[in-house]
Amino acid sequence: MEKIDLRKTYKNLYTPSAKAVQLVEVPAFNFAMIDGAIEPGQGPGTSPGFQEAMQALYGMSFTLKFAMKQRKDNPIDYSVMALEGLWWIEEGEFDINKKDNWKYRLMIMQPEFITQEMFQDALLQVKRKRDSARVDKLRLERFAEGLCIQIMHVGPYATEPATVGKMDAFAAQNGLRKCGMHHEIYLGNPLRADPEKLKTVLRHGVVKVD
Predict the structure, then answer these.
(1) Separation in Å, CA 150 to CA 5, 20, 24, 91
(2) Is the pLDDT higher at 101 or at 178?
(3) Of the four, 26, 62, 109, 185, which is 20 to 30 A from 146 by CA?
(4) In which domain, by residue range, is 186 found?
(5) pLDDT, tens digit, for every residue of 160-177?
(6) How, if at all, do strands 2-4 and 76-78 pair?
(7) Who contacts 148 (Cβ-Cβ below 8 Å, separation ≥6)?
(8) What is the mean pLDDT of residues 5-29?
(9) How much is the pLDDT for 191?
């Protein structure tokens, strides 16, 4: 059986340095996605909708994985990738310290061989197992970020603003302007890991300033 480890294939994008901000070019990838919004007065850790969206996305990703592994012809085994989140607000400037007006797009990268037909078949299986309106919002799309700055944040989510400050300083020093959405890749489980050891890739699209 063929085995694939996308974490190793794209190591530069999923295990960046925690010491210095890096400038990277992120190509297009396939992602299972679901959109939502943090409820007023809540944060990602307390939002019921966020938790449901995350469960639906993981359910879809593992269903696809097992379907590929168990098929009779050319079975493929691969590791489910990390949960990722794009964050933005509808109006004004994104503020990482204020969470109850955030919109989000949760994503998990899928191998290139996952097709829309496979995705729809898996979606039917997930619907039979999980009675949630969130499941209907799942979709498979291609997403390309292009030129980005990124760094590994180590520690609690509450201390991310200091790391984002390093990214802002790097952008200013190198003639770059941030654009698009704030991007986080969650490499640790906040329910199990020591908060001081949590690892989160912080990424943001940039453009060169003339």
Answers:
(1) 22, 9, 7, 24
(2) 178
(3) 62
(4) 2-208
(5) 999 999 999 999 999 999
(6) parallel
(7) 23, 24, 25, 26, 183, 203, 204, 205, 206
(8) 95
(9) 61
Q: What is the helix, strand, coil percentage profile of the chain, to 5? A: 35, 35, 30
* pLDDT surpassing 80 at residue 189: no
pTM of the model: 0.92
Report the CATH number at residue 29. 3.20.80.10
In terms of DSSP H, where are the helices of 130-207? 160-173
At CA 186, angle to CA 159 and CA 30, rounded to 5?
140
Amino acid in position 1: M
Count of Cβ atoms closer than 10 Å to residue 141 Cβ: 14
The Cα–Cα gap between 56 and 100 comes to 22
Alpha carbon distance 174, 156 (integer Å): 28
Residue-level pLDDT at 93: 67
Query: What residue has token string 């003339």?
Result: 210
Higher-confidence residue of 94 and 198: namely 198
Q: Structurally, how many domains does the chain consist of?
A: 1
pLDDT confidence of residue 164 = 94
**Rounded Cα gap, residues 17 and 35, in angstroms:** 29
The values of phi and psi at residue 44, to 5°, are -55, -35
* pLDDT tens digits along 129-151: 876 778 889 999 999 999 999 99
**Angle at Cα 99 formed by Cα 98 and Cα 101, nearest 5°?**
100
